[in-house]
Amino acid sequence: MPIANYTTTVKQLKTIGEIQSMLVEHGVSSISIDYAEKQPAALYFIAEINFQSVPFRLPSKWEGVLQAMKRDSNVPKRYCVEDQARRVAWRITRDWVRAQLAIIEAGQVSLGEVFLPYAVNSDGQTVYELFSQKGFAALAPAK
After folding, report:
1. 10-residue block means of pLDDT along the chain (143 residues)?
2. From CA 45, how far away is CA 37, in angstroms rounded?
3. What's the sign of the alpha-carbon dihedral 109, 58, 89, 62?
4. Quick one: which of 43, 65, 64, 44 has its CA closest to 54?
């Protein structure tokens, strides 16, 4: 099966607007877009978790999408270009955010549980990045 959304024609900023709308509907208090090389690279947002404002950074890593599209023989070569990969990456991110918000609405998890890996510290590192650098030993199963 080809990578999701590989034929999309939806512009990045339209998709980002859809993500922003969904997040605002779920109580996010602030949202901004981080740009790299004049292209949207990540969404930053602030949500209240346990009565504390917590910043999050949700990246869109188009490079991985482009590589996946190139490896997939079902994806025509004309789609395997940077601009398309950027559009696809944001559409995939939108789909993921929508799914996560659905399980929050269903009462299965909280926003903090879902987005915790993307929480950002004062140095701009995400929780996931911190764990990656410091090691995951703290999560090892009890013996």
Report:
1. 92 98 96 96 96 96 97 96 98 98 96 95 91 74 68
2. 21
3. negative
4. 44
Residues 119 and 128 sit within 8 Å (Cβ to Cβ): no
Alpha helix stretches (DSSP H) within the chain = 12-25, 62-71, 82-105, 111-115, 127-134
pTM score: 0.91
Identify the CA nearest to 22 among candidates 88, 85, 89, 90.
90
Structural contact between residues 23 and 88, judged by C-beta atoms closer than 8 angstroms: no
Q: Please give the pLDDT value at position 52.
A: 95
Q: CA 97, CA 44: separation in Å to the nearest integer?
A: 13
Reading the block at residue 80, the tokens are: 């395997």
Backbone angles phi, psi at 9, to 5 degrees: -115, 5
Q: How far apart (Å, rounded) are the C-alpha atoms in residues 123 and 100?
A: 26
**Cα–Cα nearest to 32, from 8, 24, 9:** 24
Let me know if 106 is exposed, middle or buried by CB neighbors in 10 A (0-12, 13-18, 19+).
exposed
